[in-house]
Amino acid sequence: MPTADLRPLPRAHFRSAPEDFIVDEIPAYSPSGKGEHLFVTIRKTGWTTLDAVRRIASALEVDARGAGFAGMKDKHAVTSQTLSFPLPIAKSPEEAVARAKGISGIEILGFSRHENKLKPGHLVGNRFRITLRGLDAEGASAIRAHLETIKKTGVPNAFGPQRFGRDGENPERALAFVRGETRGPKDRREQRLLFSALQSLLFNRVLEEREREGTWCSVLPGDLAKKHDTGGLFLVPADGPERIDAEERAIAGGISPTGPMFGAKMRWPEGAPKELEKRVLDASLGSLERLEGLRHLGEGTRRALRMMVSDLTTETLNEGKSGHSLAVCFVLPKGGYATTVLARACDLIETRGGAREDSPGADAAAPGDDDVANDD
To answer: Does the CA dihedral 213-218-222-224 come out positive or negative?
Structure first.
């Protein structure tokens, strides 16, 4: 069974330039070629998704409030993704896009019409290419070995720190709001962000307990297991051949136990998994009833406790005086954080603009990419 900690880990520098963190969104479907929404696929550098949406909408001469996207991508990276904009049939897509082609830092890769706007979560996942720098030969070899283990076992599917606001204070604000200790923000979008941060915090706490138990990647009787290929959920029975089959499928990486994204309509597991989740909820909120009045912010769902990593490869880029550089490529499902993967293989040191910061970093797969549409 995989351990909860792969340390000791070699140190690695990353994000010294946007080109060191490349993310390509994998769309869930292609536009139909007709309809009143224009899908525009872009590659951007130095832009947040929201700023890119506003700038392109201005060039297209449409209202940015009608724009859509499947997930937000980081500013400090080279990222590609598809955006949608409302464009009446009477307007020419070619003429509209031509006005957006001169924006510095944004390249138009393609465009087509579709009947509906893009919504959060309308993606399969993201493909990453991340360059790790400042390694010696021993460190590079150790990282490759850790990544080989990750190929087989996956990683704990924790939410990264970027999920919790700039200063990491959103969960505490959300707890005070839900407990009735503060009135909370009036803006509905900010309320949703706080609620999402709270859901993520409680999920991480359940995951931490399962890691301590050594059961984050194995299924227990009463678990709600998730099928990685279809996303379907099923209850793991207490005994019999179906339980044995579930245990074998979990070992093979086909299914994983799930944890709670708490909400008034969330489906609960049974047995020991349910008792663990109730303990975490009671310790934080006191009662699920506190969430009843927040049904409009999120009804709740399940999220896999384990994230499987696909198409994982490494490439040594140079062996000069500055040490080894290692390009790590992999695919994650929506809602997955790239630094969650890398942090299991190395001690990440984020470098931006010459300033170094010991940090797990911010992923390009931010809230809105998640399988819970609160927005990654």
So the answer is: positive
CB 246 within 8 A of CB 219: yes
Contact status, residue 76 vs residue 15, Cβ threshold 8 Å: yes
CATH assignment of 29-120, among 3.30.2350.20, 3.30.40.230, 3.40.1080.10, 3.20.20.105: 3.30.2350.20
Q: Which CATH number does 1-27+125-154+309-376 carry?
A: 3.30.1360
222, 273 Cβ separation under 8 angstroms: yes
Separation of alpha carbons 331 and 318, rounded Å: 24
Contact, 27 vs 90, CB < 8 A? no
Whether residue 8 is preceded by a cis peptide bond, meaning omega within 30 degrees of 0, is: yes
In the Cβ-directed half-sphere of 34, how many Cα atoms lie within 13 Å? Answer: 0
**Residue at token pair 């696909």:** 310
- Report the amino acid identity of residue 266: M
Q: Is 74 considered catalytic here?
A: yes
Check 20, 74, 223, 376 and give the catalytic one: 74
Task: Map tokens 């536009």 to a residue.
Answer: 31
Evaluate whether 38 touches 96 at the Cβ level (below 8 Å): yes
Q: Which two tokens stand for residue 199?
A: 């859901």
pTM of the model: 0.84
pLDDT in tens, 256-284: 999 999 988 899 999 999 999 999 998 88
Q: For tokens 């630094």, what's the residue?
A: 339
Among 18, 125, 14, 38, CA closest to 90: 38
Closest CA to 165 of 190, 202, 139: 190
How far does the chain reach from its first CA to its final CA, in angstroms?
Answer: 31
SS3 (DSSP) at 33: coil
Query: Could you tell me how far CA 142 lies from the centroid of its own chain?
Result: 26
pLDDT of 203-226, one tens digit each?
999 999 999 999 999 999 999 999
Q: Which CATH architecture has domain 162-306?
A: 2-Layer Sandwich (3.30)
Cα separation, 228 vs 250, whole angstroms: 10
Residue 302 β-bridge partners: 260
What does residue 259 show for φ and ψ, rounded to 5 degrees?
Answer: -120, 175
